[in-house]
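#struct-help
A.M.: can someone run this one for me? Single chain, 485 residues.
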Amino acid sequence: MLKGFTRNFKPLEVLTEEQVDAIWRGVLEVLERVGLKIEVEAPKALKIFDDGGCKVDYDAKMVRFPPSLVEECIRKCPSSFHVEARDPKNDLVIGGNTVYFMPGPGMRYLDIDTFESRLPTRKEFYDAVTVYDALPNLHLHHCNGPTTSFEGVGPFMSTIESYAARARNSTKVNFLSWAYESDRFNLEIAKVVGAKGFSGVGASPPLCWSDDSISAEMRAVEAGLPTLGCSGSIWGATAPATISGELITNIAECMGSLVLAQLMDPGHPFMASTFTFPQNMRTGAPFFGNITIAVACAAFNQVWRRYRVPTFEIEAAIPNSKCMDFQSGYEKAMNAIIQAISGGSVVWLHGTVYGELTAHPVQAIMDDDIAGMIGRFLEGIEVNDETLAIDLIEEVGSLPSNYLDKQHTRKWWRKEQFIPAVADTLTLPQWLAEGKKTTIDLAKEKMQEILTTHKVSIPLTGSQEEEIERILAEAREFYKERMGA
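D.P.: on it. C-alpha cells below:
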C-alpha cells in the first residue's frame, strides 16, 4: 500500500470557528431555500431524493434539502476509506492525515521546444503513462490523462482508450471518467484488470447537476466505487465573486452528490472536491495560479474537516504560465503546499502546463520534486533522544571538532534532508563543467532513463488484453450507434 505523506502537525486554519459556522449556516440555508436543479431525464434520482426526505419539484427538477437531512448524510460519510489498485502495493487509504498527489490533465501534448500544442501519438501517450507509473510521489492517475486523447481516437472514445492505456502501463489507482457514459466501459475494464479506483462527477454551476453526472454517480455507487462530488465554478461568473460566497455555492453543489450517495448506500465512501477559480476580469478567462485559490482551498478543507470528510483539490495542477518556467513553478508550488498543509487528502499537481489545455511528462517529472518537497515538509520534525543528540553534542564539543565523521551523521542526513530527483544541486564550478544543464534538461534525461528501465510491476495477461480489446470494440459500436461517431 502506498503510504503517501503523513501530515504530522495541526492543519493550517484560515477561518475562525465563527466564520466556519457562518459559512456552514449559509450552505444549509441555500440548500433549503434555493436547492439544486437536478436535470435528469429519468425520475429515478429525483425519487431517491424525495424518498429520502428532500422537497422535490418534479416539473422544475428542483430539489431542496432539509438541514437535518444534510447533516445526517454527512455524519454517515466515512472519515477514511480504502481504494484498490491493480497492484495491491499501490492501494490507497484516503482520509485522515495522509496526503496523496495526482496529475492534472491537458487536452493536448506540449512541444517543449516550441511550446506549441498537438495531439500526442499513441506511443507518446503510452510513454507518458509509463513515466507517471515510475514517479515515486505521484500516487494515482487522472481520468483524462496524461492528455485527454491521442492521435486516431475520437472524442467519445478518448477517456476509454486512455483508461485502457493506464491499465496496461501502470498499476496505480485510476480515477474513472464519466462523460458520455464512458464510465460504463471503464467499469468493465476495471473488473477485467482487478482494480476498483474511484469515480468523480462534477456539478454544472450555478447550483445544478446534469443527467450525465448524476447517472454516472448512481452507477458508481451501485458498483461499490468510492465517489467524489466536485464543483467547477468561476468566481464572479458562475459563483459569487467573494471567497466566502463561492465557498457556499461550491460546498452546496458538492452536497448534492454527497446526499445522493448516502441515500443510496449509507456509509458510502465519498470525497468533497473543489475545482474553482476566480474570473480574470481583464481577459474573461479563469485566473489560474492565483494565490486567492489557495486561500479558498484552505477554507474549503477547514469547513469539511468539521465533519471529517476527505477533500480533493484540483487547482494547484493548473498554472497560468504557458511554459515550464519560474511562474509555473511558483504558481504550482504555492497552491499545492497550502492545500496539503491545510488538510487536503488528494492534491492535483503533476504534468499540466497551462489551464487544462496542455501537458507533458517532463513537467510531471519536475512536479514530482515539488510533491517530494511538500511531502518532506508535511513530515515535520522528529523529536526524541536520538535526534536531539545531546550526548553527541557533548562528545563533539567545540572547534576544531566537527560532525562529518560521526555515525549519527551518516544515519540521519538522508532521513532529514529532501534530495530532489532532477533539480540542479551542483556547485557553480560543477554546473559549468558539466554543461550548464537546466532543470528541464535534467528532467528530459530522467524521462529517457525511465523509458529505458521502468517496467510495469504486473503486466496484463493475454486474456486480459483480449477482454480489453473486446470492451473497446463494444464501446466503439455503442458510440457509433448512439452518437454517430
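A.M.: thanks! The first helix runs from residue 17 to 33.
D.P.: also worth noting: The chain has a mean pLDDT of 95.
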